[in-house]
Amino acid sequence: MPFLKNNRSLSTRLSFLRKLIQCNSSVKEAEMVILELLSRATSKDKNRMSLSKLDDNLHAVEMTALWMALAKPSVMQRYNRWFDFLNNADEIPLEISEEEKFFIKNELPIMNLGATASGKKLVGALLDRLQNSGKKSDFEVEHVLPVKRHNKYWKEAFPTSIEREQYMHKLGNLVLVSKKATMRESNQSFDDKKKRYKSESQWQLTQTVASSSKWDETAILKQQYVYIAIINDTWGL
After folding, report:
1. Mean pLDDT in the chain?
2. CA gap 203, 68 in Å, rounded
């Protein structure tokens, strides 16, 4: 659609939603909602939806889709929610409740999103969105604290398996990189990993990790706080 090329906000929202729909079955019905909204905005009818109204609606779709991706409501609940959404779309976009916002803010930090392929894809979509990319670019989600801690640095930083497993798959331990790391790169010490992260000019949040002097529990929680703060700013949670 031609108007999307000149509207960064719309293209960024649609890019995020497309990635989210592809990686999470609890969000798949959002596709029909998006198509209907785009249809209303491109209609030849004089009362067609304005681009600002479309943007407001897509903002609300993003929040609803993220909540669904995490909460996994039933199919019936999802359909009812989206139908209600479309019924209100021409007036005031139906945003998620305060309780649902609270759920997102509280669940994201405690979920082991890095433990599954679908969870990592969700993180990839989210971190890409937080950096307002909206570009068609390839990226990989990498564990800073690696899944296999062969390196001496990680054995000393996280001496017990309980400590490692508590933080390894958390949001704050995950970053975007431009290309998939080799096995050797994945298991490098943090000092060596920082050299790669500093060069990730497209991913500012990955570069912030490189500014840390060490990578331990405190650093992971700090990075997680940074992510959650940007999520809050992005969607007003």
Report:
1. 89
2. 26
Measure the CA–CA gap between 173 and 212, rounded to whole angstroms. Answer: 13
Rounded Cα gap, residues 37 and 6, in angstroms: 18
Rg (CA), the chain: 19
Give the Cα separation of 134 and 156 in Å (integer): 39
SS3 assignment, position 160: coil
Confidence of residue 182 (pLDDT cuts 50, 70, 90): confident
Query: Measured between alpha carbons, how far is 65 from 24 in angstroms, rounded to an integer?
Result: 10
Question: Left, alpha or beta for 188 (phi > 0: left; psi -120 to 50: alpha)?
Answer: beta
In the three-class reduction of DSSP (H, G, I as helix; E, B as strand; rest coil), residue 133 is classed as coil
Residue ranges in the chain assigned as alpha helix (H): 2-5, 8-23, 30-42, 51-71, 75-88, 98-107, 117-130, 152-157, 161-167, 183-186, 190-198, 204-210, 217-235
- In 3D space, the residue among 19, 1, 17 whose CA is nearest the CA of residue 137 turns out to be 19
The 10s digit of each residue's pLDDT in 65-78 is: 999 999 999 999 99
82, 123 Cβ separation under 8 angstroms: no
| Amino acid identity for residue 89 in this structure | A
Distance of alpha carbon 12 from alpha carbon 55, whole angstroms: 10
The two tokens of residue 27 are 């969000």
